[in-house]
Amino acid sequence: MQPTTVGVLLPVPQRPDTTPIDRLMTITTCNPPFHAGERLIAYTVFHDFAPTQQVPSEIAAAVAANGR
């Protein structure tokens, strides 16, 4: 993908008018490393979040509001 292709970050990548049914996580990186010649894109479906340590105070209220 070219660095100007921002549709990869949409809730449904490359489909701006589509309603998402999954929560996707988008991972982007430069290729070659540290240059903007092109981007590599990877997607995964976000299933849940399980903290391995105490929740930081800065986000504790938001985490509690989501029932986590």
Brief synopsis:
The chain has 68 residues and is mainly beta. The protein contains one helix and two strands, in the order E-E-H.
Q: Care to describe what's here?
A:
Helices cover 9% and strands 24% of the residues. The radius of gyration is 16 Å and the shape is extended. The mean pLDDT is 84. It is mainly β. 0% of the residues are buried.
Number of strands: 2
C-alpha-based Rg, rounded: 16 Å
Low-confidence stretches: none
Tell me the quaternary state.
Answer: single chain
Which structural traits does this protein have?
68 residues; mainly beta; 2 strands
Any chance you could write out the topology, listing elements then pairs?
Layout: E1 24-31, E2 38-45, H1 60-65
Antiparallel strand pairs: 1-2
